Amino acid sequence: MQGVETSSGVNDNKISFDGKDHHLMDISADVSLGVELIEQFQFTLNYQYGLTNIEVDAIQQRNRVLQLSVSYFFSKLSFK
Hints:
By secondary structure, the chain is an all-beta fold. It has a domain at 27-73. It has strands spanning 8-11, 14-17, 20-23, 28-37, 41-50, 64-72. A three-stranded antiparallel beta sheet has the order 1-2-3, with no helix packed on it. β1 (8-11) and β2 form a beta hairpin. It is elongated and about 55 Å long. The protein starts with 7 loop residues before the first strand and ends in an 8-residue tail after the last strand.
């Protein structure tokens, strides 16, 4: 029977997953852009680029994240 075998474990400053060692900590650069429309909607676009190699003893692999969030405000409180 064929299948995918996974294993994980934490040791010192690295974690093992699927037979590969990964660093526990990642440093990234982050850029965000947000806009508020009609006083109730807010849209935010966020991009994160990993600056550190996440694999131990392997080719360069970095995390990259693209995130879009939409917010709706039911009511706004005004403090006067």
